[in-house]
Specification:
Layout: H1 10-19, H2 25-36, H3 50-59, E1 66-73, E2 78-84, E3 90-97, E4 117-120, E5 124-126, H4 135-139, E6 141-144, H5 147-164, E7 176-179, H6 189-201, E8 210-214, H7 218-226, E9 232-236, H8 242-248, H9 257-271, E10 275-281, H10 289-299, E11 312-318, H11 332-344, E12 349-351
Parallel strand pairs: 4-7, 7-8, 8-9, 9-10, 10-11, 11-12
Antiparallel strand pairs: 1-2, 2-3, 3-4, 5-6
Helix pairs in contact: 1-2, 5-6, 7-9, 10-11
The structure holds S-adenosyl-L-homocysteine (SAH) and iron/sulfur cluster.
Length: about 375
C-alpha cells in the first residue's frame, strides 16, 4: 500500500501517468508539484488535466496525511499540527518561527536560531524506547512512518506556513527541519534516510539545514558516519554517568555512555562534523554540578580532527513538565550554574528556549492519544 505520494519514485510516477494515458512530461509536472511546490494533494495540481487530477485523487484517496488539528502558541510563533495517517494513527509536527535578531528577547539566546522557520517532524507514531521522562515514550510505539509520510509532514507544514506568519517580520519559508518529534529516527533508519535525501535532493534543503536527533542508538550513529549526506547529528545524552542515564534512558543498558561516545568519536573522525548533545535538565535528577563537571570531562576531549576545535556542543533544555512522569524542571539558577560549570570545561554550551509549552508542543510533549479530548482547533482550508 502506498502511504504517501512522496513514497513513489520517478519510475512509479511515470508508470502512473502512462496508465492514465498521459504523456511522460506529466510525471515531471507531478514531481514539480510534489517537490518544488510541496503540494501532495492532486486536486491542487492545477496544470494537470482535470481527468488526471480526478483519477489521482480517487486512486490515492486513502493516502497521505490529513490535517486533524492545529494549535497556535507563543503568540503565533509556534504551531502544532496533528496529522492523521493512513490507517488511523496520528503524529504531530511542530513549526517554530524565529524572528530576526532583537525582536523577541526570549529567543535571543546565544547562538539562537534567528530568522529561521524550523519544522520538528515525527519519524514514528509513538516510540518504543521508553525514556522515563518523555511523553511520547510513555505512550508506547504504534508504528513506523514511511519515508514519504516523514517528507509529507514537511510539505504540509511548508504550504501552511505563509498563512500562519504572526507578522511581516516572520520568515516566509521553511529553513530547517529537525527530526525531534515523535519517535526514534534511528529505530526507523531506512525511512529516516530516505526522507533526509528527498528533503535535500527534492526540496532543495541543504544538508546542514537538517538535524537528526537520536537517543543514542550506536548502529544508527555508525550508519550516519557512512552516509554521504552531511546532516547534523544530535545525541540525547541527559546524564554523564551510567547510573543516572539508566534511570532516564533505558537503551543506555544496551549502549552505555562509553559505547555511545566511542561511536560519536568515530563519527567525528570520519565526518569532521560537530555533534550536538541534548541534555534535558530535571530538578534533583541530573542537574547537580557533579553531573555538569562529569559531562564536561566526557565531552571536552571530543575534537574535530586537524582544526582541534571542540566537536561537542551541549544544548541544555529545561525539562518541560509532563504529567505522570514525576520529573520537574530545575530552577533558573540551577540552569545557570549547570551551564557555567559545563562552560568552564571549555565545551560550548547553550540553553535552549522552551517553545510551545502552552500547547504541549515542546520537546517530549508530543503525544497523540485517541482518548485525549481534542483541544481548540483552528479552521484551516484544505486545498481543492
Ligand atoms: N527520539 C529522539 C528524537 C525525539 S525527542 C531523541 O530522543 O533524541 C527530541 C528531544 O526532546 C530529545 O532530546 C528528548 O530527550 C527531549 N525531551 C523529551 N522529553 C522532554 C521533556 N519533557 N522536556 C525536555 N526535553 C525532552
Ligand atoms: Fe523516544 Fe526520544 Fe522520547 Fe526517548 S526521548 S522515548 S527516544 S522520543
Amino acid at each position: 500500500m502506498t502511504r504517501s505520494l512522496y513514497d513513489l519514485d520517478p519510475g512509479q510516477l511515470e508508470a502512473l501517468v502512462a496508465e492514465a494515458g498521459e504523456p511522460p512530461y506529466r510525471a515531471r509536472q507531478l514531481v514539480h508539484w510534489l517537490d518544488d511546490r510541496r503540494q501532495p494533494d492532486p486536486r491542487a495540481m492545477t496544470n494537470l488535466p482535470r481527468s488526471l487530477r480526478a483519477r489521482l485523487s480517487e486512486r490515492f484517496a486513502e493516502t497521505g496525511l490529513a490535517l486533524d488539528q492545529h494549535q497556535a502558541g507563543d503568540d503565533g510563533w509556534t504551531h502544532k499540527f496533528l496529522f492523521r495517517l493512513p490507517g488511523g494513527d496520528a503524529v504531530e509536527s511542530v513549526l517554530m518561527l524565529y524572528p530576526p535578531a532583537g525582536s523577541r528577547p526570549e529567543d535571543d539566546w546565544e547562538g539562537g536560531p534567528r530568522g529561521r522557520a524550523t519544522v520538528c517532524i515525527s519519524s514514528q507514531a509513538g516510540c518504543a524506547m521508553g525514556c522515563t521522562f518523555c511523553a511520547t515514550g510513555q505512550f508506547g510505539f504504534t508504528r513506523h512512518l514511511s519515508a514519504g509520510e516523514i517528507v509529507e509532514q514537511v510539505a504540509r507544514v511548508s504550504t501552511l506556513l505563509p498563512e500562519l506568519r504572526p507578522g511581516p517580520g516572520a520568515p516566509d519559508h521553511l529553513t530547517n527541519v529537525v527530526f525531534m518529534g515523535m519517535g526514534e529516527p534511528f529505530a526507523n533508519q531506512d525511512a529516516t534516510w530516505g526522507a533526509a535525501y528527498r528533503l535535500h535532493q527534492g526540496f532543495g534543503l541543504s544538508a546542514r539545514a537538517i538535524t537528526i536527533s537520536t537517543v543514542g542508538l550506536v548502529p544508527g550513529i555508525r550508519r550516519a558516519a557512512a552516509e554521504p549526506l552531511p546532516v547534523n547529528l544530535a545525541v540525547s545524552i541527559h546524564a554523564a554517568d551510567d547510573a543516572t542515564r539508566d534511570l532516564l534512558v533505558p537503551v543506555n543498558r544496551t549502549w552505555p555512555i562509553a559505547a555511545l561516545l566511542e561511536a560519536v568519536r568515530d563519527y567525528v573522525a570520519a565526518t569532521r562534523r560537530r555533534v550536538s548533545f541534548e541534555y534535558a535538565l530535571m530538578d534533583g535528577v541530573n542537574d547537580d554540578l557533579d553531573q555538569a563537571r562529569k559531562l564536561g570531562r566526557l565531552l571536552a576531549p571530543l575534537r574535530v580532527p586537524h582544526s582541534g576545535g571542540h566537536a561537542a556542543h551541549v544544548n541544555l533544555i529545561p525539562y518541560n513538565p509532563t504529567p505522570g512522569t514525576g520529573f520537574s524542571p530545575p530552577s533558573k539558577s540551577a540552569v545557570r550554574r549547570f551551564r557555567e560549570t559545563v562552560a568552564a570545561s571549555g565545551v560550548p554550551v547553550s540553553v535552549r528556549a522552551n517553545r510551545g509549552v502552552g500547547i504541549d508542543a515542546a520537546c517530549g510533549q508530543l503525544r497523540t492519544t485517541a482518548g485525549r479530548p481534542g483541544r481548540r482547533v483552528l479552521p484551516l482550508a484544505e486545498p481543492g
